[in-house]
Amino acid sequence: MRDHDTQPVGGVARRLAHILTSRGIDPAAQLTDPVEPVPALQAAQARIPARYQDAVADHPAVAAWVHEVAQAGRPGPKGAPGIAQGRSLLIVGTTGTGKTHQAYGAVRSLLLAGVRLRWKATTAADLYAELRPRSGHDGERELTDLARCPLLIIDDLGAAKSSEWTEEITMRLINRRYNEMLPTLVTTNLGMADLRQYIGDRVASRLTEMTDKVILDGPDRRRALAAARRCIAAA
């Protein structure tokens, strides 16, 4: 796994910046909403939580990953690229540093780049709740669909209560995506040592190989915004 700090150069960001520059693409350019609406983005907005509907993937390593995935996509109908096999991201940081914001920003940026994209997003806690065996529900079918989805966001891995069953589900899902080399965006509050203890050595080993690690640091942005609102109200 290659670690990335919050600096714009280093590791995968430097490597991808060189590739993009050689192709005449400015790696520092941010994807912004076009004047004309993008139908795929409009459709996706209904599935993106309201808080993240304007999210932007502005971390250099995340933006570089978006460019790499967009460039690697195989042309489909009308020449639009579809998402291809590729690297995944493990976005690590303490609470409130913007991990989920970056993940949804990556999805929006891919759609803005014209990538034909089937994607799903879930928190780890919701994942286990949805797949837990119960009458009238085909959890195996849902697991297979998640495993085959071209792009999957797993938010807050390590936040749900662990058990042998959750470890098995995580292993089966990650292993299938690892084998097929399908891009996966994983966010977590845990360092690798704690994450390894939570998900087990086998899953941690696969995440180590399949992902580039992006570290987000800084203060809790939610607390900072709350403090700013209190200051405004007091004034």
Outline the structure in words:
The structure is a single chain. With 235 residues, this protein is an alpha/beta fold. It is built from ten helices and eight strands. The protein has a six-stranded parallel beta sheet with strand order 1-8-4-7-6-5. Strands 2-3 form a two-stranded antiparallel ribbon.
Residue-averaged pLDDT? 83
Largest sheet properties: 6 strands, parallel
Low-pLDDT residue spans: 1-9
- Ends distance: 48 Å
Backbone shape: globular
What is the number of helices?
Answer: 10
Give, in order, the helices and strands.
Answer: EHHHEEEHEHHEHEHHEH
Q: What is this entry, summarized?
A:
With 235 residues, the protein is an alpha/beta fold.
Outline the secondary-structure elements.
Blueprint: E1 3-4, H1 12-22, H2 39-45, H3 60-72, E2 74-75, E3 81-82, E4 88-93, H4 99-112, E5 119-123, H5 124-131, H6 139-148, E6 151-155, H7 164-180, E7 184-188, H8 192-199, H9 201-210, E8 211-216, H10 221-234
Parallel strand pairs: 1-8, 4-7, 4-8, 5-6, 6-7
Antiparallel strand pairs: 2-3
Helix pairs in contact: 1-3, 3-4, 6-7, 7-9, 8-9
For the structure shown, list the relevant keywords.
single chain; 235 residues; alpha/beta
